[in-house]
Structure formats: C-alpha cells, structure tokens
Amino acid sequence: MVITVASGKGGTGKTTISTSLSLAVSSRKKLSHVDLDVEEPDSNIFLKIPIQREEMIWLPLPVINYDKCTFCGVCQRVCEYNAIFVFKNTKQVKVFDQLCRGCGACKEMCPFDAIYEVQRFIGVFSMGSRGNIDFYEGRLNIGEYVTTDAIRWIKRRLKNLNKNDITIIDAPPGTSCPVIQSMKDADFVILVTEDTPFGLFDMKLAYGVAKKMGKKMGIIINKALPGYKETREFARREGVPILLEIPFDRKFAKAYAEGVTLSEFSENYRKRFEEVFQYIEGVVQNA
Length: 287
What we know:
Layout: E1 2-6, H1 14-26, E2 31-35, H2 43-47, E3 51-64, H3 74-78, E4 84-87, E5 92-95, H4 105-109, E6 115-130, E7 133-140, H5 147-161, E8 167-170, H6 177-183, E9 188-194, H7 197-212, E10 217-224, H8 230-238, E11 242-247, H9 250-257, H10 262-265, H11 267-285
Parallel strand pairs: 1-8, 1-9, 2-7, 2-8, 9-10, 10-11
Antiparallel strand pairs: 3-6, 4-5, 6-7
Helix pairs in contact: 1-11, 5-6
C-alpha cells in the first residue's frame, strides 16, 4: 500500500503530517518512508534516521563522436527539449547539459551511430533504517531542476530495494509534474491544507490533479481555525473525508521548530494518526 502525502503549496505542514504518520504506524508495522521532495527534503530532520548508504542519481548525457558525425541535424530535430544544436557551418554540435533529460532519442535516431552516452550526476540518493522504518531520500544538486527525472530514477531504484508492504511518500509541494510522478503509484493521497483562502485555493488544484488521476483521497487540515468554514464546505461538496484537524496552536509550532513530530509530542495525536492509517487501510482493502 502506497500513501502519498501532498499539498497544493509549500508550508502547509506536509512533512509534519507524513513523518507523524510514519512514526505512529511504525509502532506496530514495518514501513518505508520516502522523501521525494528532492529540491528540499527535510523528513529526516524529524525522523532522525542514520544514513547508512548513498548512491548518485544520474541521467544519461549524449556525447558526440566527431569521427562519425556528419552534422546531418537529426539529433537536433528529434530532441523535444532543445538540448542539442548542430552548427553545420562550424561543424560543431552543442549539448546543453541542463536542458537534457536523458531520454536517449538522439542516440537512438542518429543514422551514423555518432552519439554515445555518459553519466551526468544530478543528485544523491540516501538510505537508512531504524526500528520499523526504512528511510529513502533524494536530494538534487544545487542548480539542477530535473526534478521529475530524479523522482522517476528513485522510484525505479525502489522497485529493487523496497520490500515493505507499506510505503509513505512525502511528495513535493504544488501540482506540477514532480507531484504527478509522486502520486502516480499511490493507492491513497492525503491532501494537507491550511485553513486560509490561499491554502484552500491551492488544495483545490491538488485535489483536481488527484481526482483526474482517479486517486482515493482524504484531507488533513493543519493550523485549523474554528471560524473558517470554507475548507469543510468544499470537502462536504466533493465528498472527500476530513481525516484529521490539527488546531493552530503555539505549542505545535514550538515542537515543529525543535524537530519534534506530532506523534512524538502528543500520545493523543499518535493514536489519532494510527486511526487515520487504519481508515486508509480499510479504504484501500475494500477498493
């Protein structure tokens, strides 16, 4: 069972929710926690799991063999990302590393076999475990923006590494391609929102993406305000359950600033996150 924790915007408490859920569930079951927010992964600030192994995340990068190249321009025409340009007058081929997505089309379509590939390292994939939690994290190198490709690489690697029946994914914020890739294999999506007009607006976008993908969903309202009813009205209209409401409280903010999850801070919330998981488990099993 794969549970993806997502949000339409940053700062809603997505990582707080995902780590609190993982710690609550791990008191009874073995699971994997995967941080796919590769531009700013911070799950381990809360989980505090020792990293035991690291691998480089890489993409294939085309290199031109000028002994074979005729500067025909096929590679330029087939590249969807405008990452390769052929300068026939000066007999040069320029590959823009930062634009290349490693799809391999130029290599496959070159009629003269004049392109080979090398590895371009774009980030680090870290692994560790403690107790019932196996932890996986991707971190892009500074300046890289091939976020979706890094997530895709990590998910391929996890097919060989992840042996647990339960996986909780901390997705990137927003609603763009990296989020879609993080939701792709999910059995259930938790949408985290804050009780503000901005939070609701962005959560609606994330809801629309998950609905289009046919995902089962539930909402967790973080920093809940008793006077703001619009989030609950939206959930009622759309038939999406509100799994949990966490009040806007200074003591929770203080615990967060100290790297303490809700499950560690409060036995009551640990039990409530266990109940959230049991609900999701029932929904997935009865699907």
